[in-house]
Design brief:
This protein is of the alpha+beta class and 192 residues long. Helices cover 25% and strands 12% of the residues. The protein has a five-stranded antiparallel beta sheet. Helix 3 runs antiparallel to helix 4 and helix 3 runs parallel beside helix 5. It is globular.
Length: 192
């Protein structure tokens, strides 16, 4: 099928739904970011990522996330924001929406194949919302993708069913013995 830019506008929604009620993300693939953040922190992406996708797709949800990222980053990280990109893309001109306008569940079809569902959009350490991530994984591409088709993760006031990802190891680098023999294999994930 030919490339369709409107299809690409659906991709960033995966990041919205991947967020647990405490502000962290469900673990997926090589994206193990947990060691970078304190408990209860609102995990962030580079600010210019959200500025770029807001400017490209003019989506009010992306504009809101761009503003949240700006509010949560450390003041010193402001220097990392790309002022020229923001000047060209103008994410500040897009009126933001609230997360509460999003559906509570979303299916991400092939080739990804995943369902994320939650009981509400309250984000923070005191949130009483639950969330579930069910990864169907219709295709296996290798490389940074793990052997985790059929896995599920559950969150309610803490992680209940998890993708363990990394256990203690001295060498967790890409391609290491630990990476190949544990981290990428089904045994490290909540699946058979």
């Amino acid at each position: 099928a030919p490339f369709n830019l409107s299809d690409m506008s659906e991709v960033p929604y995966w990041l919205f739904y991947l967020r647990q009620p405490d502000g962290a993300f469900f673990q997926d693939g090589d994206g193990y970011m947990g060691r970078r953040y304190a408990a209860g922190a609102y995990w962030t992406h580079p600010q210019n990522l959200w500025g770029l996708i807001t400017g490209l797709f003019h989506d009010p949800q992306f504009a809101a996330e761009w503003r949240r990222m700006r509010a949560y980053v450390e003041p010193a990280a402001d220097a990392l924001e790309e002022p020229i990109l923001n000047l060209v893309m103008r994410p500040d001109r897009i009126v933001p929406a609230t997360r509460e306008t999003l559906p509570l569940a979303r299916y991400f079809p092939e080739p990804f194949g995943a369902i994320l569902a939650r009981t509400g959009w309250d984000i923070g350490t005191e949130s009483r919302n639950a969330a579930a991530y069910l990864k169907i994984g219709t295709h296996q591409f290798g490389n940074h993708q793990h052997a985790d088709s059929g896995q599920f993760q559950l969150y309610y006031r803490g992680q209940l069913a998890i993708d363990s990802g990394i256990y203690q190891s001295n060498d967790t680098t890409y391609g290491s013995d630990h990476f190949l023999n544990y981290y990428q294999r089904s045994v490290a994930h909540n699946t058979l």
